[in-house]
Amino acid sequence: MKRLIISITLITLFYSTLCCAQHEYPFNKSLNGNGIRAYWYNVPRDSVTVEILNHIFQFQSLLQIYGKTPADSFQVQADVYAKNGEKVYAGNFEVTKGQNQNSFSALFKDDYFSLECPVEYLAENPDRIKVTIKSPDGEITDEIKCRYQRLFGHVSDYDGNPFEGIVSISPEAFLSGTSIRCDSSGNYDIEVPERTYNTIICFSDSYGISTLEVWAWHIIMDSEQRLDFKVGTGEVYNLNAWPNDGGPNTYFISFRPMILPLTQSYNMKDFLESIPKYPVTINNNEFQAVSEVFDLDTEDVKVWINGKQVQIISLQKYFETGRNTAQPSYIVQVSRDGLSRTGKQTIKLEFETELEQGGEKVRRNSMGYYQLNLNFSGLSYF
After folding, report:
1. Domains in the chain and their CATH numbers?
2. pLDDT higher than 70, residue 55
3. Which residues make Cβ contacts (< 8 Å) with residue 196, sequence separation at least 6?
4. Closest CA to 133 of 69, 88, 72
């Protein structure tokens, strides 16, 4: 596989009785007694190896455990069982804040920890995970039932050709070991633990050369679902959506469009450093804005909600600001007339535009997904 480079720059809840609030972090203590969560991501070891920014990511099965941090040093024991009751895995982890471990990783946020460990692929998904956390203050134990949902779909390019990319599924970040390769027809099929995922992305070794990534954001895996992707020469980045509370019957959808550079003869680092910037003043504060590569009009954007194309009422440009930078982004306001007002909503946004390159027109396009749950009134529930 060719070297892939993913640049940082280029690179709500309506509880279901099945999910048991697996969306929520940190976890509500009253929901299962102590807030422990555990997931087993069952992926064949070394099914795909990807080189990103001179680091090798080996996609393999992972065990992930969350809980409340009982002390600066504590022990986590995990016993994993198959459906027939056989123990298929046993792990014992000595966790100490501030110390790196070779066989597993541990992250701490406020009073909570997340532990992740590579594990061997199982012939079938496990049935339950028993977790015991021991510290000088005592021990707590919980048994977590493993729930899985099927995620599948077809990936193509914008000419309809099958795309043999990699689909990476990440609960909290952008790229994880839970990944699968599309087959020669562009199809992918994987069972993943039931929960909400921060991102699902698809890319290949053509990244940064002839394609970028396609993103799905905040994907709620509370049931089997199909997500078809089209990989193009742009990205729908930082996609988010929310209903208009107390206003017209509309959704607001925000995103930052990104596109492949118009020349392929570049070094990525040099290209990023050479992007022109210009000063812009927002609320009496000055930012360095990325030079506009392109503008979008309403006819360049399409939106579907639960498979139905919806009317775009307005497309408004704004700046996504950081400490000193500003990047052009958009808010789309679309009609909710005739749409369901309960349950999970799947929003798909797509853009396509033409730009000049060497006196010829070139296409820049991409699409993205975002999911959210509505409250009983059909409005926000955070």
Report:
1. 29-145 (2.60.40), 148-373 (2.60.40.2190)
2. no
3. 22, 23, 171, 218, 219, 220, 221
4. 69
Q: Is the pTM of this model over 0.70?
A: yes
CA dist., res. 160 & res. 155, Å (int)? 9
Dihedral (CA of 86, 179, 153, 173) sign:
positive
Structural contact between residues 57 and 49, judged by C-beta atoms closer than 8 angstroms = yes
In sequence order, what are the beta bridge partners of 62? 41, 118
- Tokens 């500003």: give the residue: 326
The DSSP code for 20 is T
Strand spans (E) along 162-260: 166-170, 179-181, 187-193, 196-203, 214-220, 225-226, 229-231, 234-243, 250-259
**What confidence tens digit (pLDDT) does each residue in 269-309 have?**
555 566 778 899 999 999 988 765 678 999 999 999 999 99
CA distance 283 to 301: 29
Q: SS in 3 state form for 175-186?
A: CCCCEEECCCCC
Does residue 243 have a cis peptide bond before it, meaning omega lies within 30 degrees of 0? no
47 — alpha (psi -120 to 50), left (phi > 0) or beta? alpha
Q: What is the pLDDT of residue 178?
A: 84
Structure tokens at 247: 């206003």
